Amino acid sequence: MFYYDYKNYQAFLFVGVGGVVINADADNVGAEMDLQISPIKGLDVILGGSWFNAIVKDIPLRFGSPCRRGTSSDLRAAGTGNRHGALRMAGLWGLLHARASAHYSDSFFYNLRNFAADQFAAYTMVNAGLGWASNDNQWELNLDIKNLTNAHAGVQGFDLATLCGCNEESYQPPRWTGINVKYRF
Question: HSE (CB half, 13 Å, CA atoms) of 49?
Fold first, then answer.
């Protein structure tokens, strides 16, 4: 758990095509927790969660405006599982492993002014994989699927409303699959 009380925090805002840094008081409160367990042989599980609440005080809605605002709250949770064990596959001995992970993010504002147009929606990101390694660890084969549910997950955004009435946003990649083959000399 943590608490920060800032005086003259440097807050970044977009005004027109450029950024402006203003000083404002701010409070940040949050908590994080991680748990790693191995409930049975060959199974590793990692769970984590965090909550973060940031308040930046007296942010102008537009430069020269008496109206002020600036709050952000974020809830995130993540889990990862990895199952591994020796198996006989098609006459080849080796180690087979399966892994899966999920990450949840609550909706969050990417701009200090907290307009609805400056908010990314909540999402859940799921990744999965299956792999095999030879007993001598010389060969390895992995199949991975990232963003299994094809979540539209926001990463970063800029409010350019005063310039063009628009926002510039970037997102995590859509679903993709990869195959990786390794041979160690």
Answer: 3
